[in-house]
Amino acid sequence: MWCIRSCVGSCSPTAISRRPRTGCGRWRRKSCGTRWTKRRRLRSAPNELSRGRRHPSASRVSAPGARVPHLGSRGLSIRPAHSRGGECCPLGQSRLPEWAVRAGSIRLSFFLSRSGRVHDQGDSATEGRAGVLISTRKKALLRTGAALVVLAASALPAGRADAAAALTDVGVYEGFGEGSAVAMAPLGGTGDQVVLGGRGLAVLDDNSLKTHKPRWSYHWGDFPVRGQGGDNQWITAVEPLRDPATGRTDQITSTSENELIRFDGRTGRIVWRRADAFLYTFGDRLSLVSQGAGKPPAIVGEYGTTAYSSADGSPLWTATVPEGDFAPGWVTAAQLTRGANPGVVFGAESDCGPGGGPDCTGHLFAYSGDGKRLWEVKPGGQTTSMVADDVTGDGLAETVAGDNQGHVSAYSPTGELLWRVQAGEGSVGAVAVQGGRVYAAADDNVVAFDAAGKRLWSQPMEGQVTKLEPADLGKGGKLLAAVAVASRVGRFVAVDPDRDGDRRTWQSTVYGRVNDFTVGTWHGRRVAIAGANDAVVHAVWADSGEPAFDYLGHSWVTGVDSGRVGQADAIAHTDDQGHVVLSDERGTELWRRWLGGDDEADAEDVVFADVGRSEPAIVAGGAGTQESGVVRAYDGRGAELWTGRAEGRIVQLITARLTASGPKAIVAAVQRGGSSGVAAFDARTGATLWEHMIGSAGATLAAADVDGDGLDEIAYSSKPYPPDTPGTFALLSPSGDVRWKQENFEIRDWLTVSGGAVIFGSRSETGSVAAVSAADGAPRWRTRLGSKVGFGTLVPQRSGVAASTDAGEVALLDAATGRISFRTRIVSEAATAGPLTLLPQGGGDPVIAVSESGGRNRTKVHVLSLDGRVLATSPRFQQGHGIDVAPTGGGAGVAVGAGLSVYSYRYR
């Protein structure tokens, strides 16, 4: 497998090398900001008349936080995360491997299938590049590509600002994304708590498993409320640190933004924070190096050569990297001398270019704990894994290193080569030392050697071992291994080195690739905890491998809706791990269900719908298998009511009145390869009413009664795919027949219907809003706004449509003529105007709520009157692009996506 590493130093082009750090299980960022990662599927936005979603346009790929289309089944993304130390490499300088380019073209049809969706005409909605706001009754939800925020607004007097208006925190369903780093430590109370590092930091206890709320948490943000919302940064390593002065256990963490932070373990308060530490560890342990009796330990981490004080974060000393090498990819504390001051061993990587080679060897070098150079060696291969521990039993640490040619080497505490053996044909992905034995992961095996390098045994692991660590598991064994089976399936395996035959005592399947693991105590019993890249914390009892609990760190939100369950407002959302989740407004999880399908399945969208019962059902849709879709309806308690099937993955859901009696039907956009269409399901039984494949990938739907007969027609648009092939614009009857169809190259980002016209936002001709006759598709009007028009919503009180642009403007247009009533710029910096919706106001005209998105850390909501005056602006919060919205039920409000979390606020 090709490992990809990003630019170095003065932003040289991306280098691609065979660097199987734990078997290429993760791609590492070097000193420049750009970072390649395995990416989860992109979420984006919704559509007028449906909660839709689409990918950011290609024109914005180079913006901070932007992503590129799918490359391969799960794909790669370039995420320019700017370091504070200098500028990032230009995106165009990054070189993709040939296989990635081929895979990208193959997956373009799937990329287009994510582009847009719509709500039924009973709501006011919009879709576009980033997402949609929808308002029904008095509240709304807005979904970003990763999360939700729920805002509830009091009745703002029409036409003037309310100076007393403020956001009041109601609750948060908090997300952390990937389980990049985990630890267990006693942080107050009884027993150990779980520390989860992902796109933020969370401490989990028993109550967290019931409410899905962490004991305390930390995210990056400007909004000073609990739970800051996930964003595009990672906690890359966590390390417990007991403070002898206070008796408490604190947490030392590193982040992907070159930060080093110490947290008070009991409260989450930041003790100190250093923004230029450059410790990029990503799932490995930070090394705490003793400085002697009575002195706080120093902190050393991967890809850094500076030791920092754990007391205040100040730098203590810096190692010098051998000429021609990168910063060390492996760093570990090591007892190299008999004194109380241990050393630090670094493993640096040579700048060898693609593929490495026999001369690509890198360096191993060691420093004493107080910063004095001890030794340096040049191994016979490029180091791919390293550990320092006592192999010979003399109390001092030997350094054991695996390389890219399948060798394992052992070096004395003074750097002399003790032995070098062949562990396998491929790269050695992990090494460990325990009880005078050396263990190495190579060629899907764990191989054991004695202290002299003699091979003892080889244990097949049925997958690539990406991490290997000694652990006291009781009867479960003495060695833990993380095994990658598939892109989203891994195993957590316990090995007993002293058993005969199969030495695996237990193995537990993890939904996702294991990034990190740890062992601690839970309810007085040893427990092993794994953090996975699919946002899962997976806990098993260490002695048996039986499940203890799972905790989902909340993945990318794919759809959201809300309604009344019993006597309370509830919010339903789906995520790209295939889950359907119902929570209350305060963020307490009520239930979670698996939509079903294979391990690559996503849950794509969700709606509250009338299914002929006393209360609405939660209906979710997604991918049942690779080439089929599933729709499932659940009651308010999470019991399944029915299951429907489609010949293609379901990527959008709306409701529409297709018959004169009974509840509205469930209407879905269906993706089948490079084609898309519409399928309708009976809301009471889930039976398929009709299915019609009509166009290319990337469908956008809207449902409304355009001819006045009481039944809804379906407006449909698909993106041009392949790019030189026209897309489809059509109107379908309630029975699925095509009333009219056009084939052209126009890209429509949202649809709505008003006054017998289908109105849409278009990227054509530098951005415009246009209308065609709903009767025959004939053009009625087009108004050019000079910038991409990503979102729109009906304003019945003005017989118009409000639209927002990438230039940061909001415009109100007459639905009959396209004449502009007002045009207001809501942002003063390089930001876009995003999703927008109407908020009803008691006794007066509604107001327009619009999201501003300027990238990470720059998201606000603005409230405008119907004459274009800005009445109120929310505080800034996190990550507002990629948004979906839905009504919350009770009082006037607006919801805004922020990272990976679901927030509830009220305006007062």
UniProtKB/TrEMBL annotation:
**Residues covered by region (Disordered):** 42-76
Question: What SMART domains is this protein classified in?
Answer: PQQ
Pfam families the UniProt entry points to = PQQ_2
Q: Tell me the ranges covered by the Pyrrolo-quinoline quinone repeat domain, including all copies.
A: 366-512, 766-854
Family matches, as InterPro entries: PQQ_b-propeller_rpt, PQQ_rpt_dom, Quinoprotein_ADH-like_sf, WD40/YVTN_repeat-like_dom_sf
Q: What is this protein called?
A: PQQ-binding-like beta-propeller repeat protein
